[in-house]
Amino acid sequence: MIVTDAWAPQVNGVVTTLGKTGAGLQAIGHEVRFITPQEFRSLPCPTYPEIRLSLFPSSGMRRAIEDFSPEAIHIATEGPLGMAARRYCVDNQLPFTTAFHTRFADYVHARFRIPIDISYGWLRRFHAPSRAVMVPTPAVRRELEARGFTNTVHWTRGVDTETFSPGERSALGNDRPIFLYVGRVAVEKNIEAFLDLDLPGSKWVVGEGPSRAKLERKYTGVRFEGIKTPNELASYYRAADVSVFPSLTDTFGLVMLEALACGTPVAAFPVHGPIDVIGDSGAGALHEDLRQACLSALEIDRSHARGYAERFSWSTSIKQFEQNLYPFAGDANAGSGSHEHTLANNSTQSDQVSR
Questions:
Q1: CA 134 to chain centre
Q2: What's the CA gap between 206 and 236, in Å, rounded?
Q3: What residue spans of the chain are helical by DSSP H?
Q4: Do both 208 and 336 map to the same domain?
Q5: Is the pTM of this model over 0.85?
Q6: Same domain membership, residue 238 and residue 147
């Protein structure tokens, strides 16, 4: 069972990752049940209406877990559904795993100015009972450990190299070079650091979010295209000369892999996320001066960007997720307290489940 507060119609890296993971687990023989806001009464998240916050989900969560009687529970997010599932598992002494998908503390600080240390303190308490907190990169793992998290494990990401692949590049016209941002249009993504740059050619933004209307009014020369299907998005990546990733707070940045898979080099700041994805691969340009990174990325061979992206696969990501799970006897109805395991057994137990 995978519990997530992030789900369709949201379009973001968390939703993509969970969808790919669920499908991949089913493909290797697992039965997967998602618990999402679609099953509960909900209201829009303040300042971010695309996100739905489930109302009073505890009883519905209890019924869902007991009806499904899972052999492993993964709590993907720290929202109302994640809290309800955590409470049920703790009360019934059921082992579970969690994930650290986004820098929640940084986002809350950017929106509401709540001190980062306060939010991280709450996150540390939320994840403390988890048998394994899955994190996307070694840098994020080191950062969380420095903040007192003691139960982190690695869970990488993948990219669909068939959908996101090189091809026809004329979709966006000929006002080149074309610099493209893809992602949520929100304050925590630091988009204005890109839009303020003095760059040749044209700038395009693909995505939706609470800052879109404001940014469209301010940057009249930028093309804002809204949300696109994966196939449509691939055509934007292909047409672009550089994919610009201005965020300073992302834990991974799946859009970087999508761009690279289409042959489009990435320009970004040298921070967590870009450092872990791009590093010294030569598939992108990282620089404290984002304009310099954008111009340097223009010189990168597109075939090199594509070749680097081919190293990332969803099959590897899904296998890691499976091995990080913490299987138990599947007697959620009983709420038994006898589920004592060690993380060292994860790999063996997961292999047995998959067979």
A1: 12
A2: 8
A3: 13-27, 58-68, 80-91, 104-112, 116-127, 138-146, 192-195, 212-218, 230-239, 254-261, 274-277, 290-297, 302-309, 314-324, 346-354
A4: no
A5: no
A6: no
Pairing of β 74-75 and β 48-54: unpaired
Please give the residue range of the domain that contains residue 142.
Answer: 2-158+315-354
Q: Are the C-beta atoms of residues 17 and 156 closer than 8 Å to each other?
A: no
pLDDT digits 0-9 by tens, 10-68: 878 899 999 999 999 999 999 999 999 999 998 887 766 777 889 999 999 999 999 99
Tokens read off for 74: 């993964």
Cα-Cα-Cα-Cα dihedral sign, residues 338, 343, 347, 350: positive
Domain check: are 212 and 303 in the same one? yes
Q: How many domains does the chain have?
A: 2
Strand pairing class (74-75; 97-99): parallel
**Does 142 map to a domain?**
yes
The continuous run of DSSP H or E covering 34 comes out as strand 34-35
Residues 6 or more apart whose CB falls under 8 angstroms from that of 149 comprise 124, 127, 133
Task: Give pLDDT tens digits for 190-242.
Answer: 999 999 999 999 999 999 999 999 999 999 999 999 999 999 999 999 999 99
Task: Give the angle 7-61-12 at the CA atoms, nearest 5°.
Answer: 10
